[in-house]
Design goal:
Elements: H1 23-26, H2 40-50, H3 52-62
Helix pairs in contact: 2-3
Length: 64
Amino acid sequence: MNYISIPERREGPGNPMPKAPSPSEEGGGPKRPETGSPDKDNLLKRMRKVDPKQAERYRQRTGQ
């Protein structure tokens, strides 16, 4: 009988490229500004000024 020799599996290096610390861990660097979502009422008022029909379609689409 002919047996096929399969090479044994080798273990690779554990972590070849360590992860760089994120800005929050590091403490320096620019941070993302915290911007909340705009108020829906305020958004609809501004949309009505620009395009009343578009504001109406948006209101129907979002259920407001």
